[in-house]
C-alpha cells in the first residue's frame, strides 16, 4: 500500500542554517516540541522528576530512562497493532546508556582503594548502580493524538506503559540458547539472562514487533584475573570483543558495590566475568556472552519477556532493518557492527514469508528469527561485493581455524567477529544505521567515521573506505564519515552478490579536498549515524558528530537519493580510487533540523499519516531539557509537526 506513494522530485522546504545555540531549529512552517524527558513518570503515584536527582532506582521501573535512542511508533486499534492507525499508538524507544555524573545526587562518585585487585580499585555506590541499571533498556509509552489534532500526549497509567531494564529477565533463543557458552549461575541451563543493555538503534519486524539492539555492552562488564584458565578459544573470543584480563570496564563499574561483609551481591557480581568458580554454573564468566544480540519485544504483550535472537549474531549491534517482504521468499535483515574496522551483516531466514504472520507477535519471531543464515559483507575494489556465510563447517569455520578453533555454530555466533575475520570480511568505518529504500530496494549504511582508517596497519584504505586525511591540524583517518549503498544481484535480497557505490561523502563544505559530494552550507554534515527511509522514499539522515560541531550542532537532513552507479569514478586525497554516487544540490539533500548544543540527534519514526515525526535528543549539553528552575540537562524525545497540521514535507509532495 505504501509503494504507490510517489516520491517528490525536489525538496522544497527552506534549509535550516548551521547553529550552535542551546535551542532547536526546525524548518520554517514546522514546530518542534520536547516530550518524555529523562525521569518522566509513566504512572500515577511516581513523583515528578526533580533536579536534586534523588529519584530512587526503583522508581525508574516506571519512569523514562536516559539517553533516548532508536524508536518506533506502533499504530494501535483496540488492543492490537495496526500499521495504518495514527490516532493512538505505542511509542517504543531505547534508553541507550547513562550520563553517570548527571544521574546521581552525588554526581559521579567512587570510593578508591589502591590495595584492592585492579578491577576493584574504584568502587561505586549500590544506589547509584541500581539507578543506572534501571535507566537503561526500553520504554513502551501509549500515546494518543491531542484534542486539537496536533501531535500526541502520553496516556499516563496505560496498561501498555512499561519499562524493560538491564535487570529484566530475558530469554535466549536460537542456536546459542542452551549452549555451554551462555550457562551462568543465574541460569545453569543457558536459556535465560538478566537484562538488556546499551540499546542503540531500533527496527520494526515485518510482523509488527520491536527489534532493539545491544551495542556497547562491553563497557558495563569487567574481567579480572581468571582463577581457572578458560579454553583458548573462549579467551581469544573475549579479547576479540575487547575484554582482556584486568579489564575494569568503562566508568560504570557496576560490578563493584560492596556491603559491610565485603562480599559483592549477586546483582552486581553478575557484571564481573572473571572465572572464579569450579565451573560456569558457579560464576558469571559467561554473563558477557549473554549480551550483544538483536532482541525482540512485543509491545502489545506487556507480560512477555524480551527474546534475544542469537541466530543474528553477537556483536555491537547498531540497528536492524528488514528488506521488503515477499510471499514465499525468506525474510532478510541488515545489520551493522559499530566499532572501528568492524563489519556489515545480513540474516536470511530459513522460513518463507507469509502475510498471515502479521500481528503474530513473538511466535512469528520464533518462526523467522531462530533459524537461518548469517552472512558478512565483502566489498571488492571494483564495485562488486559478496556475502559470505557464517556457517560452522564451511569455508574454514571449524576446529582447524587458527585464531579461534570453532567447535560448533554456537561458537561461530557468539564470536561472530572472529568468524567474520576468518572469512575475509571488509573492515568498515564504523557501520551504524541501515535502511532499505522502498523505491529501489537498495540498502544504505552510515559509516560514521574512523580515526584509524589509513592510520593503522590493520585498517588500510579500500575502495569502500577510501578517505584518510588531516583535519583540525591532525591526521584523523576518515574524520567525517560516509554513506555506502548497494543493490543485491537481480533485486533478490537473499542473493550472495551485489554492486555498491558510495552514496554520500560527509564533509564540511569548506574542506574542499574532502567534499567529494559537493555539499554546500545548506546540506553539509559530518558523522552520519541515524538513517531512515520513510515509506515515501525520503531518506532522513541524523548526525552524531564531534568533528564539525564548532560550526553546527548535530542535525537531521532530508534527502532524495538516486541509485547505485549513477555517479562517477573518483580518486580521494589519499590516492584511493572509488565511485561517488551523487552530486549534492538543494534539490536532493537539505538540512531540516538542528539540535541543541552538545547533543546527538538519533532515533526516528513517523506516524502512518506522515503528520508527526518523532526524533530523539541524546546527551544535550548546557541545560537543555532541565526542569523549570533546574540545571541538569536531560535527554528527551522531540515531536515535529507542521504548523498547518499537514503531512511532513507536504510542500515537496504537491
Ligand atoms: Fe549507539 Fe553506534 O551508536
Ligand atoms: Ca548511533
Ligand atoms: Ca554514533
Ligand atoms: Ca549515542
UniProtKB/TrEMBL annotation:
The organism sits in which domain of life? Bacteria
InterPro entries assigned: PhoX (IPR008557)
Disordered: annotated segments: 455-476
Q: What is this protein called?
A: PhoX family phosphatase
Specify the species.
Psychrobacter halodurans
Amino acid at each position: 500500500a505504501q509503494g504507490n506513494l510517489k516520491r517528490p522530485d525536489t525538496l522544497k522546504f527552506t534549509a535550516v542554517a548551521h547553529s550552535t545555540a542551546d535551542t532547536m531549529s526546525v524548518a520554517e512552517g514546522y514546530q518542534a516540541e520536547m516530550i518524555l524527558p529523562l525521569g518522566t513518570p509513566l504512572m500515577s503515584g511516581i513523583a515528578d522528576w526533580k533536579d536534586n536527582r534523588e529519584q530512587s532506582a526503583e522508581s525508574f521501573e516506571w519512569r523514562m530512562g536516559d539517553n533516548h535512542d532508536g524508536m518506533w511508533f506502533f499504530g494501535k486499534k483496540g488492543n492490537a497493532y495496526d500499521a495504518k492507525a495514527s490516532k493512538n499508538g505505542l511509542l517504543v524507544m531505547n534508553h541507550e546508556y547513562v550520563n553517570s555524573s548527571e544521574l546521581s545526587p552525588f554526581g559521579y562518585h567512587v570510593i578508591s582503594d589502591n590495595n584492592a585487585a585492579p578491577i576493584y580499585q574504584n568502587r561505586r555506590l549500590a544506589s547509584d548502580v541500581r539507578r543506572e541499571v534501571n535507566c537503561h533498556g526500553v520504554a513502551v509509552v501509549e500515546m494518543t493524538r491531542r484534542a486539537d489534532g496536533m501531535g500526541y500526549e502520553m496516556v499516563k497509567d496505560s496498561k501498555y506503559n512499561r519499562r524493560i531494564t538491564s535487570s529484566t529477565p530475558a530469554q535466549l533463543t536460537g542456536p546459542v540458547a542452551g549452549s555451554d557458552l551462555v550457562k551462568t549461575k543465574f541460569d545453569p541451563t543457558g536459556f535465560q539472562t538478566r537484562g538488556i543493555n546499551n540499546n542503540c538503534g531500533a527496527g520494526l519486524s515485518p510482523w509488527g514487533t520491536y527489534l532493539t539492539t545491544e551495542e556497547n555492552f562491553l563497557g558495563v562488564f569487567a574481567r579480572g584475573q581468571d582463577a581457572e584458565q578458560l579454553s583458548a578459544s573462549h579467551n581469544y573470543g573475549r579479547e576479540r570483543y575487547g575484554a582482556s584480563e584486568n579489564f575494569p570496564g568503562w566508568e560504570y563499574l557496576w560490578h563493584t558495590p560492596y556491603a559491610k561483609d565485603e562480599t559483592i551481591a549477586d546483582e552486581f557480581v553478575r557484571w564481573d566475568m572473571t572465572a572464579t568458580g569450579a565451573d560456569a554454573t558457579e560464576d558469571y564468566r559467561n554473563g558477557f556472552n549473554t549480551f550483544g544480540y538483536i532482541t525482540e519485544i512485543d509491545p502489545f504483550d506487556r507480560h512477555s519477556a524480551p527474546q534475544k535472537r542469537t541466530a543474528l549474531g553477537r556483536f555491537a549491534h547498531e540497528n536492524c532493518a528488514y528488506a521488503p517482504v515477499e510471499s514465499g521468499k525468506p525474510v532478510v535483515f541488515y545489520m551493522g557492527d559499530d566499532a572501528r574496522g568492524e563489519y556489515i551483516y545480513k540474516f536470511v531466514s530459513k522460513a518463507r514469508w507469509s502475510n498471515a504472520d502479521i500481528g503474530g507477535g513473538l511466535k512469528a519471531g520464533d518462526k523467522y528469527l531462530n533459524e537461518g543464515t548469517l552472512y558478512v559483507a565483502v566489498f571488492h575494489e571494483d564495485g562488486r561485493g559478496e556475502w559470505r556465510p557464517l556457517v560452522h563447517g564451511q569455508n574454514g569455520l571449524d576446529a582447524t581455524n587458527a585464531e579461534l578453533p570453532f567447535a560448533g555454530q554456537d561458537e561461530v555466533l557468539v564470536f561472530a567477529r572472529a568468524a567474520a575475520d576468518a572469512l575475509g570480511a571488509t573492515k568498515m568505518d564504523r557501520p551504524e544505521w541501515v535502511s532499505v529504500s522502498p523505491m529501489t530496494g537498495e540498502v544504505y549504511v552510515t559509516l560514521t567515521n574512523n580515526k584509524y582508517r589509513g592510520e593503522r596497519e590493520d585498517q588500510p584504505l579500500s575502495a569502500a573506505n577510501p578517505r584518510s586525511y588531516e583535519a583540525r591540524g591532525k591526521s584523523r583517518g576518515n574524520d567525517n564519515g560516509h554513506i555506502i549503498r548497494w543493490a543485491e544481484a537481480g533485486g533478490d535480497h537473499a542473493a550472495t552478490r551485489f554492486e555498491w557505490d558510495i552514496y554520500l561523502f560527509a564533509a564540511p563544505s569548506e574542506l574542499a579536498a574532502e567534499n567529494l559530494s559537493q555539499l554546500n552550507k545548506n546540506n553539509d554534515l559530518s558523522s552520519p549515524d541515524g538513517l531512515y527511509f520513510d515509506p515515501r522514499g525520503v531518506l532522513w539522515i541524523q548526525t552524531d558528530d564531534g568533528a564539525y560541531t564548532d560550526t553546527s550542532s548535530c542535525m537531521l537532513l532530508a534527502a532524495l537519493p538516486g541509485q547505485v552507479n549513477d555517479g562517477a569514478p573518483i580518486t580521494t586525497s589519499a590516492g584511493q580510487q572509488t565511485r561517488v554516487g551523487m552530486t549534492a544540490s538543494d534539490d536532493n539533500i537539505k538540512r531540516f533540523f538542528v539540535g541543541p548544543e552538545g547533543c546527538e540527534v538519533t532515533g526516528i519514526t513517523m506516524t502512518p499519516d506522515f503528520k508527526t515525526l518523532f526524533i530523539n535528543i541524546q546527551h544535550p549539553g548546557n541545560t537543555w531539557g532541565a526542569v523549570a528552575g533546574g540545571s541538569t540537562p536531560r535527554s528527551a524525545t522531540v515531536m515535529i509537526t507542521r504548523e498547518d497540521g499537514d503531512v511532513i514535507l507536504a510542500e515537496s509532495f504537491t
